[in-house]
Every structure is written in structure tokens, then in C-alpha cells.
Amino acid sequence: MPHHQDESEPQPTLTDGVVVLRPWRDEDVEPAVAGQDEEVARWFGWPVDGATYERHREAIQGWRAAYADGRSVVSFAVEHEGQLVGSVEVRNVGHDTGALSWTLYAGHRGHGYATRAVRLLTDYAIDALHMRRVQAEVDAANERS
Length: 145
What we know:
alpha+beta; globular; 4 helices; six-stranded mixed sheet
């Protein structure tokens, strides 16, 4: 029988020395909304003005609930040198499989932060969440991702 993480364990903080993956904080809402731009909206299929303070605050509450409820979704804020630069998440889609998604905020792309964050999250999904497969669907036109 596979060992599963204690449900009461708090969400960890992960780092490779360059990026830090940590649980979302209430004070992350404003910089996260400020970092949204046309590129984020296009790849996620949102309206450009779709990111609002209220929606992001609700999203953070939803991520906390999903983490507490069997880790159905695990979302991390991504930091570099103490600054919020993006986010990364893994969603349990069944069959021991996790679906990855990530975003970097305006002004923080092209530095390798997403590559590092996805690598950390993949290791976490396999080691701590006991997923046997992680996958990402990336639009062929999204050359950066």
C-alpha cells in the first residue's frame, strides 16, 4: 500500500537556491494581479481584464482548500530574491497522473524561472504526492513554454 502524505501536514516550501516555491499568502494578491498581462490572458484563455483582486483572492482560498482536501490541486507562488515572479501548480487528474501548469508575470520571463519551478514541482509531485506521471499541455504556438 503506497504511503500518502499526512493530510494535516502544511504545504512545504521548496527551493533550488534560485527560485522558491511556497504556499500563497494573502499579500500575494496585489503583485499577482499586477503581473498579469496579455500574454498570461492569451495562453490561459482569459479576458485581458480577467485578473482582479477579488478573483485572485478567491483562487488562493480555493488552492488552500484543494491542498487540504487530498492535494487535488497544489499551487505554489514562485519567488526569486524575495519577489513574486509567477506561479506553478499540479492538478491530480487521476490514474496517479498530475497535470502541470505555470505562469510567469510580466517582467520576469526569459530568466529560466519557469524551468526551475516546473522541475521542483515535478520532483515534489513524484516524491511527495506519489504521482507516477506528470504532464503538461502546451500550445504549439507558445514557444517560450
